[in-house]
Amino acid sequence: MENKKRETFSSGLAVFFATLGSAVGLGNIWRFPYITGMNGGGGFLFIYILCILFVGIPIMISEFYIGRKTRANAVGAFRKLNKENFKFIGLMGVLSSFLIMFFYSGVAGWVYSYVFKSLIGKFNGVTPEQANEIFTSTISNYGMAYLWQVIVMVVVSTILIMGVKNGIEKVTKTLMPLLFILIIIMDIRALTLTDSFEGVKFLFKVDFSKVTQASILIALGLAFFKLSIGMGTMITYGSYFTEDNDMPQTAFKVAFSDLLVSLLAGLAIFPAVFSFKMEPAAGPGLLFMTIPLVFSKMPLGRVLLTLFFLLTSFAATTAMISLVEVPVAYLSEEMKIDRKKAVLLTAVIILVFGFLATASIAGGNAIAEIKAFGKNFFDLFDFVSSNILLPLGGLFITIFIGYFIDRDDIVNELSNGGKISNQAILTAFLILIRYISPLLVVIIFLNSLGVFK
Ligand code: PHE
């Protein structure tokens, strides 16, 4: 397998869209708004943006470097660099990918079901109470929710098995801009609701008094989750990059566009939250309870709402493809399992543990009663992956790149053999990755443990 020439993306634009396809997903539309809402708004956003700049982007560039240099999966890449001792970083990534998929596939199921619910007009003229009820019954009826989760995994596996990824990439190229336009329409509608400005203030007014010690680690975790870093996804994608791609620039563009999508989603959701007198800290249901209200009193509302959930489900699906690609590439390239079997095996594991997540968030059953550290399965999978494993994986990557890889080699690869002159950026990168990024991650970890209290 390894001697066969690996495919690469066809152009710089294809690299950008494929990478953005991994980054943009439920993270922007579902997770960013509800987590920002639970952590007090603007102050949290400010810290989140610092995490992207000083930790996220440098790690993304590092992963691109590892991937393109070796043209291998997240575990094999370390072997090819003759750094067998660091293979554990890739293996941790495989584990993170599973943990994220256990709950992500469930939430994607909610989104798929909302496409259907919008289409049949379930949200025509809904009140805030009804929107709330519809969401609660969507998750508490966990048999049905699980069925949607199975459908999600069938779709993802089919795409991976049929190898129509290239087709998907072409589709993403048109659908991503469409999702962008639709969110802007939502923004305009939401910003013209009464009291909408309260929502804008909530999102952008930097107020550190609402930021707790725990929020800082959550902001860091969100940056990792959002940018699909700390677990080898960007190593795997980097391995398909073209030789002439300006990787630092790609990282900037992806991080910036991803942030923009999140902010625009927030600008649709928070004005609605305040206008309809809802609770910004409502939790994982926030998106599902507010968006139907934004569209409900709008011309063509039902069509636009259906289209919105449809495009969101596409964004979720491309993100999941990149998530599942980590274990699949590992199983097929390192363990020599036939690719099709690797996909099926991965999907089955996800569906077995995914059931625990779905049943636990439904409440009112024995599975929901099982708790570790006060968290049910859904929260535990989420917390351990985003707030522990991804930052830890990221920390190891910064140490690996900063201290175990030759500087000249990094400079050479990131400047494409001297073909692009980005000396200032490379110097900044080298300083960040060696000193700043790892230090910040360590400080944030220690802080969340209460060491600086
Ligand atoms: N970045 C994706 C999102 O925000 C989720 C993801 C995480 C994808 C990690 C790949 C790897 O939805």
From TrEMBL:
Signal peptide annotation: none
GO molecular function, one term: symporter activity
A Gene Ontology cellular-component term: membrane
Bilayer disposition of the protein: Multi-pass membrane protein
Transmembrane spans: 12-32, 44-67, 88-112, 145-163, 175-194, 214-240, 252-274, 303-324, 344-368, 380-405, 425-446
Top-level taxon of origin: Bacteria
Keyword Cell membrane belongs to the record: no
Keywords in alphabetical order: Membrane, Symport, Transmembrane, Transmembrane helix, Transport
SUPFAM superfamilies, A to Z: SNF-like
Subcellular location: Membrane
Stated family: Belongs to the sodium:neurotransmitter symporter (SNF) (TC 2.A.22) family.
Record's protein name: Transporter
Native species: Caloramator proteoclasticus DSM 10124
